[in-house]
Design goal:
The complex is a heterodimer of chains A (209) and B (179). Chain A contains 9 helices and no strands. With 209 residues, chain A is mainly alpha-helical. Chain A has one domain. In chain A, helix 7 runs antiparallel to helix 8. Chain A is elongated and about 85 Å long. Chain B has one domain (15-177). Chain B has helices at residues 15-37, 39-51, 54-57, 63-105, 110-125, 128-140, 142-177. In chain B, helix 1 runs antiparallel to helix 4 and helix 2 packs across helix 4. The two termini of chain B are 28 Å apart. The chains are: A mainly alpha (209), B mainly alpha (179). Chains A and B meet through helix 1, helix 6 and helix 7 of A and helix 4 and helix 7 of B.
Amino acid sequence: MTRVMLTLLATLLAAPAAAHHVGAYVPKDNAVTINFKQVKFSVQARKFDVALRLFETGALRAEMRAHAATLPAGLEDGTRAALAASDGPEVERRLMIFFAALARDLALEADRRLAEAGGTAESRAATGRKFLEAIWRYYNLVDFAVATRDNKTSVAVRLAFDEAETYVKPATGAAAPADPARLRPPLQRIAQVLSTLIEASPTQARRDS
Amino acid sequence: MTVAAEPHPWRVPPRWVLLVAVLSIVCAEVGGASMARFKVELTRWARDSMLARPAVHGLVGVRDVDERILDEALVKFDAGLRLFHMHAEGMGLVIIATTMVAATVARAGVARRVIIALLTTGGAGYPVGYLVWSALIPAYGLERAKTIAEWLVWIPFGSATIVALWWLTGLIALRMIRP
């Protein structure tokens, strides 16, 4: 009886004593996504002069330059030209290509990291989870633009993403433990689908012959 | 007009209890002021410490991935300092109020001394857990630092306060039945 009472007392004590308020973290935008939103909203408001200034002085253009080696040729110049020409749909299309390229590069890097030997399944799953968060942060910005132009690509990326997420979720209750080894195929699929989208989207200025 | 005599005048808790409570509030104020004054230095130190331990924080060397991890850790590092400031301020007052109730309601003896000791140590110790958590985040990561702070500070000191408060509640209820 005393043991039961003590156990009950310990349980009653432990539950509230172990519940500490440690604050909540709400992920913030980074400089690139903030600048993207600024440019996008300026374009939507048809303030192309503002959008051009924000693009020329913001992190978006700096990031385009930093990633120039892996981006389609003429993407930055074409974006600036579209802004100067007040061509909203073309600005949106070029920014879509840019963020698709960023997401693709992250998917390729994640696949490369997961192919490397070493580390526990837990740590590899954690790495995969963090890469997926970063991929989604960029892809999510342009998913609507992708879906309106190429719905199959949008669906393929989201399906691959959903599948990848199931392999990195931490084990809870009856759920299976994380399985990072199975994460590579969906990541490869994301990279391949986005590469096809980027290659199918011309970025060089069209010449009338 | 006549004023009815107070049957049970409030008793002041022992001086050492008041000293601990006031000291807790002083630490809260100093902590809050230091947090604001040295915000940049503290953030820089925490960031550098985290970058020096990439494996602990799961940093992968890709900026787009790492910036989110570092941001979350820095937000929690700052939250720990803020929560220490708020809890130390609040618990200082809680110590004074609850030990005053204990000193008034509980009859002199072991029970009163134990309740007052538990309320004081629990109340003063619990906020320190936030400081410990914050300080350990750069070296041990979010979850490990939280676990250490939990078992070292939050659970023992939090439990002491909870036990004492339930005990005090029981005593007050008893006094209502048998004044």
